[in-house]
Every structure is written in C-alpha cells, then in structure tokens.
Amino acid sequence: HEFDADLQYEYFNAVLINERDEEGNFLELGKEFILVPNDHFNNLPVNISLSDVQVPTNMYNKDPAIVNGVFWSESLNKVFVDNFDRDPSLIWQYFGSAKGFFRQYPGIKWEPDENGVIAFDCRNRKWYIQAATSPKDVVILVDVSGSMKGLRLTIAKQTVSSILDTLGDDDFFNIIAYNEELHYVEPCLNGTLVQADRANKEHFREHLNKLFAKGIGMLDIALNEAFNILSDFNHTGQGSICSQAIMLITDGAVDTYDTIFAKYNWPDRKVRMFTYLIGREAAFADNLKWMACANKGFFTQISTLADVQENVMEYLHVLSRPKVIDQEHDVVWTEAYIDSTLADDQGLVLMTTVAMPVFSKQNETRSKGILLGVVGTDVPVKELLKAIPKYKLGIHGYAFAITNNGYILTHPELRPLVRKLFVDLFYAFIVIIFT
C-alpha cells in the first residue's frame, strides 16, 4: 500500500454503525451493519461476514494515517472468515494497529460509557505490548521542582500513569521524583525495580498523588541514580535481562549532561533515553532532544492533558525497532484473564490471548524498523484443557494450570475450589504441565 494523504474511504466504525441522525439518515462511517445474535459468541449480536473498526475517542476517525491503515487492513476480512470456517472453535480475531485503530472479527457494535467515551486503546493491552516489544527495565524520572507547579505537574503525573499502562508483567520499573534531592515515589523500594504487575502499578499510582512541586531540579543526581539502579539490577540477574530505558519527564534541562552519559552509557548505549518536555515553552527542547537522540531514544513535547496518550505511545515504536528489523515473528501467550462478554451458564470464562507482531514488507522496514501492529486471537483455557483429557494422561498423570504467583487455577482434584481463585486470574500465567 502506498500512503495517500487525500484518501477518502468509508469504513465500518464500531461505535457509529447503524446510527442515524435526526433526519433518519445513517451517520458518516455509520452505515448499515447487519448484526445477528450468535450462540458461539454468547448470543451477542455479531457479523460473521465482516470485521469492523474501533478508534479511540481521543483520535480523529478520519485522520489520514487511520484511513490508510483501515483501507489496507480491509483485506483481513477474508483471512478472518477463512480462519473461522477452518476452525469454528475460534472466537475473537483482531488486528491492533500501531496507529491506534483496532480491527475486530466478528464485527460487533461498541457502546461508549455514560460520558460518551471509549477509553480502550489496543496499544495499551498486554497482548499488544508483549508482542510488540521485548521485556524491559524502566526507571521513570519526574521533575518536581518549583517550575512544575500547577498544570505541568498534573500533566506529568498523567504521563507517568500512561507509561505505567504500557508496562506488562514481563517488565520491571521504579519511579523517582527529583528536585534538590531524590524522592522515591515508594520509599520502601529504594534502589531497586519491581515487577510491573497490576497490583504494583496501582500501588505506585496512589503514591503519585502525594507528589508536590518545590525547589530546584537537579537532574544530574537523578540521572546518576537511574543508571546505577539499572546497572546494579541487571548484574543481579533479576529483571527483564533485556531492554533498559530511562523515561525523563520535565519542563526543561539546562545542560545535556554528556559527561554522565559518557560515564554510564557510551559507547554501547545499552540504556535508551526517552524525554518528555512538559508545557508549551521550547526553550530547553534542544537539550532534551540531544539527550534522547544521543542515547537511541525519542523526544516529544506534551502541552496539554489531551496530548499525553498519543505522545507516550511513541516510545513503543522505538523499542519495537530491533524486533522489526530482525523480523522476529515471536508468538506470545498472555497470562490468563476473565472475559465477561463470553460468560456462560457456568460463570465467567477464563481466557488467554495469542499474539504476534506484524511488519511491513517494504524496504524501509529493514532500515527504520516500522511496526504495523499486532495480530491476535483469544483462546479459552477450556479449549486448552480439551487437548489434554485425563484418559490420555494415564492413571498416574494429571494436568493443571498455575498462576505466576504460584496459585493453582485448575486441577482435577481441586475443581470445587476453582471459583474461589478467580481473584488471582488477573495476574495469571498459564503453564500446562504434564507428569
């Protein structure tokens, strides 16, 4: 596909389908889309002939990048339908674009919340992050000097929260606020990194609200601390043992701090530097740009709260480059989770997702590492268990699923207790073990 900035293309928008205006005419991007209740999808009204497209509320439906992506990905309709014909046990199939749109099969109507908003962004989902990037260790540095008071600090906190959204169970992180001194957001976790699981991320979010701005920003102290943490943690053999990054959120830097980078990060540049300039002023933008570019990272400026989500996403494109350039089509399986949309007469359905990155075949992919997105499908855990019936295991064999925290989710001798363990499913990682 050749990008066309003037491309006009009417697609099925999952929010607008079948919607009419006051005169009874279908809305733009909201053409008639036949939906029929289907037993296989828990009687949800779906269209098993076509997929449709969800675009996050904070993005323009007809942005040229969205329209072009939706246009070329339309050919996935035949792939989805053929897959479903070949394997009727399949449920949701989808493509999450690096541009933000989400193509889902079978097509289904999406309903916004009471505020008219759909916050879902496929690029924040664990299946997307795990497939698009390698595991990573991240230190987030937040400027809390006096110049960050008011809206700037609010934007900075939201930026940190959005970065946390992009971290998964394979990642490790810590957050350090700095002025004349260093302030670990969680004082009990000085000098180390923690797993980016749901509980830890929520815990750190609560502590973000306690930050306030005062004093002078001493970035050199913060950079030294960040590099030391990453180095020490890596040497212990803990963490992701893969990519490492420093995320700097500030309203400016008076120096490039090249001596610090020369000491810790050059010439190998193993730690990437991502810089987020908060506010409309660009007086210190050049220093932050230099730091990012000199350390294989990315610079972006965030002026309003509405800018946060899209600007944070840029770092994922950078971290995906090595995988794209090397054409690593790694298949990932996510931890188990509950899918409430497909609950059956036995209760909520335990699910896992299989996902894989999608690359362009154009020459620029090899040189620039352009990720198109991630393709995935959901797999009910009960379908996995069907593949290992007890009679095949023998009288002395059994199979069970266990969470990454060591809790048994399903086991032949523990079936009555399974429902009591649903609280752990959000952190679950499925491992099928044969003995």
Please write out the topology:
Elements: E1 36-38, E2 44-46, E3 52-54, H1 64-73, H2 76-86, E4 93-97, E5 102-105, H3 126-132, E6 136-143, H4 151-165, E7 172-178, E8 182-184, E9 194-195, H5 198-208, H6 219-235, E10 243-250, H7 258-264, E11 271-278, H8 285-293, E12 298-302, H9 308-325, E13 332-333, E14 337-344, E15 347-359, H10 363-368, E16 371-380, H11 381-386, H12 390-393, E17 401-402, E18 408-410
In short:
The protein has 435 residues and is an alpha+beta fold.
Offer a few descriptive terms.
VWFA domain-containing protein, disordered C terminus, globular, 7-stranded antiparallel beta sheet, 435 residues, alpha+beta, 7-stranded mixed beta sheet
Spans where pLDDT lies below 50 across 5 or more residues: 403-407, 414-435
Shape: globular
Order of helices and strands: EEEHHEEHEHEEEHHEHEHEHEEEHEHHEE
Query: Which radius of gyration do the C-alpha atoms yield?
Result: 23 Å
| Mean pLDDT reading | 86
